[in-house]
UniProtKB/TrEMBL annotation:
Coiled coil: none
Source superkingdom: Bacteria
Name the UniProt record assigns to this protein: Cofactor assembly of complex C subunit B
Transmembrane segments: 6-24, 81-105, 111-128
Originating organism: [Phormidium ambiguum] IAM M-71
Amino acid sequence: MSTTILSSTFLLTVLLAIGLFFFIKASVKDRTQVMQLISQEPIDSLLAQLQQYFTQRSYKVVALDAAQNQVTFAGFVRPSWFLAVFLTLLAALGILCLVLVLSFLFPQVSLLFFALELLSPVAGIFYWQKAGRQEQVSLKLENTQETENLITVTGHRDELSVLRETLGWQQIS
């Protein structure tokens, strides 16, 4: 192969490896959002329903402000086995591509480059150590009208979407 083809392939492979690195890094990024929901139920019923929901999801009440109708729940979010394995496989494929290009560029030491494959489990280990963490969900209940209550929820975006779907409340955009 010509040097131009190998050089351009190497450059593209390095750019893809950089993208893979940032993809793996983003897998543990904090994704806290604020969502506002509307419910027709009374505040006392809402608080009981929310406490039951979060207790079922292994959250515990860590702060309660009755004067402001504000509750903070905390719970441990476990990392996903599937995502850890998936990230390890992606890293293995990305490193394999880089190794193949490097072995074409430097054929005299091509077997040494295959030792880089041993680094692929680092991606899964990184995810596993960083993704398992304490998450907090903060709720604030407000009366907007006589028949409607506004619930402001701050927490992880996946937890908020499951909450909205499970309890069937309408989201304010």
